[in-house]
Structures are given as C-alpha cells and as structure tokens.
Please model this.
Amino acid sequence: MPFRSFSLPSALLTTRVFRSIIKILWPSCDNIHEQLSPDAEKSFMNLDMQDNIGYTFHGDTMETLKPFLITLIPLMVALDAPGTLPIYVAMTEGLEKHERRQIVRQSILTAFLITIAFTLLGRAVFKALTITVEDFMIAGGIVLLIIAVLDIVRAGEKKYPISPTFGVVPFGTPLIAGPATLATTLVLVGSYGYVPVILSLVVNILFAWLIFAQADRIIKLIGVNGSRAFAKVAALLLAAIAVKLIRSGIVKLIEG
Model:
C-alpha cells in the first residue's frame, strides 16, 4: 500500500491536510475530529515505525549474510567439485557401488578436516614463520594462477592407481582440498574472519559430497563433456581470482 512508504513528516502532513478538509466540509464535527486526529497521527507514526523496523531488520540481515556470500563463491570455484567429477568417474570406473561410496566418505571427511585445520592454525603458522598475509596472498595467487592455467591447457586427465587410502590421497587431498582451496581459505580468513569462511567451507563440502554421491546421475544428465566444459569455465574464474589476489597483495605491501 502506498501510504506505508511515507516518512514521519509526510504522515503528519497528511494528517493535518485531512484535518483541514474535515473542518471545511463538516465544521460541526470539529469535536469528533479533535478526538480522532491524535489516533490518526499515532496510527501513521506506528506504521512508519513498523516500516523502519522492517527495513532495519532487512538491512542488518543482508549485512550479516554479506561476508558469507562473498566467501562462498571463491571457495566453490577453488574446490571445483563439478570439475573434479570427471576425474572421480574415470578413476573409480569398474568399482562396486559400496566401494565408491566409501571413497566419497573418505575424501569428503579428509577435505573437511584439512581445510578446517588449515583455517584455524594457518595464521599461527604464519606468525611462527614471520610470514604476512600479503606474502601468502601473492604466493597463493601465483599458485592458483599456475593451477588454473594448467587446468585450462592440459590435454588429458591425471591417472592414479586405486589403493585402500584412495579416498584420502589423492582424492581428498590434493584433488579436493588442494593448494587452491587452502590458499583461498586462508586469504579469505584474513579479509572476512573465521565464521563466514568456516560456514562457506561447510556448505561447499556438503555440495561436493552431494555431487560425488550423485555422480552417475549427473554424468548421465550433463554428460562427461558438459562436466569438462564446466571445469574449464571454473578454471577461468579461478585464474581471475588468482590475479586479484596477486594484485591485492602487491597493493597492500606498497601501502604498508
């Protein structure tokens, strides 16, 4: 309704105009009007306060979610679960269904523990080695850029022999929780804090688990070529993020 967007001065002005019209049209009703107009003003003021409270609540919610949303996308690109899917399918081809499920559980648990541990202890390691966040931003950006370029131009997929710990190494790390994920995680912690980064990690790890658990259905739906095309696009985005990290690290070093 249009009147709900009035500010407080506009509401009071509308009340005064309404009062003047009543006095002109019904002079004999002044006493009734005087009794009703304070309630009208109060109603307008209450409506305006409710709108302000609603807008404030909406704004506070968006400000709270903003760091989480900002950290969610870079970590999704760095983890690149859809891009890793063809590798997973190729390496687990011929295995039984329960064996593939065990590999998925091992890999997801490994990736989660490694990324969380690195998120919580990474800065302490930096302090012990006298490394700054800017140093890691530049180094991590270079590593991410190399990984992205190699992923874009490589001709074939890597092959790994299947072993009992295949879900831990190499699938859990370095394929899922690799240098790209660890570098992105630590840099984002320095910019946005632990809570939004850990929440983003949990969401992305669950997303990766969902993709690998439904690997057969996804491959049938989009095809191996579609998954590989998505991986190339993700690699381009990762390269762009890497350039941004390098640029930000250099700028902060110069400003500092």
The first helix runs from residue 8 to 25. The radius of gyration is 29 Å. The chain has a mean pLDDT of 75.
